[in-house]
């Protein structure tokens, strides 16, 4: 593999690491400030101090750069389950809230929503990021069904959509508080509404 920053390929080279981080930070900042259309190679080069030719060697398109920038802002994983489905689901949505409100991922996700409707690469990125957390949430709800806490005839995906959808609605649309009281009530309502009879 050719090192886009010159010389032998060595992704651990401090110069490569610094340049890559500067480019990703610049792209993420532009994305959060002005949306998808604000991210251009020229703009990223100016803000990062990394040459356009170097950026083009490392990322084949603006979409590829944005995808890398958004992925870099996304904290990996969900909390490890404790075995209590109510508590685990509450921790799951709490982790989602923290990701949306305390990291660059929330603004970056909001900025890519429209782009995902017309760019297949960005749409695939959003699917990938959603699936990581979605699988964890589904595991919690299916375990709750096995334990008799939730009606096994109900679709766990629908229940999860109701819970997680409410979090995204407050974050992206209504801008109402995503406080602990709301998350507590949200999880309790999900379990009560889906309770096994």
Helix count equals 9
Strand content: under 5%
What would CATH call the architecture of the largest domain?
A: Orthogonal Bundle
Oligomer: single chain
Shape verdict? elongated
| Weakly predicted, low-confidence segments | 1-9
Number of strands: 0
Order of helices and strands: HHHHHHHHH
Mean pLDDT, rounded to whole units?
A: 86
Helix content: over 70%
Biggest beta-sheet profile: none
Describe the structure.
With 197 residues, this protein is mainly α. It has two domains: 14-72, Arc Repressor Mutant, subunit A (Orthogonal Bundle), CATH 1.10.10.60; 74-193, Tetracycline Repressor, domain 2, CATH 1.10.357. It has nine helices and no strands. Helix 4 (62-73) runs parallel beside helix 7 (120-146), helix 5 (85-102) crosses helix 6 and helix 8 runs antiparallel to helix 9. The radius of gyration is 20 Å and the shape is elongated.
Short description:
With 197 residues, the protein is mostly helical. The N terminus is likely disordered.
Identify the notable features of this structure and list them briefly.
197 residues, mainly alpha, Arc Repressor Mutant, subunit A, 9 helices, disordered N terminus
Topology, please?
Blueprint: H1 14-34, H2 41-48, H3 52-58, H4 62-73, H5 85-102, H6 105-116, H7 120-146, H8 156-174, H9 180-193
Helix pairs in contact: 1-2, 1-4, 1-6, 4-7, 5-6, 5-7, 5-8, 5-9, 6-7, 7-8, 8-9
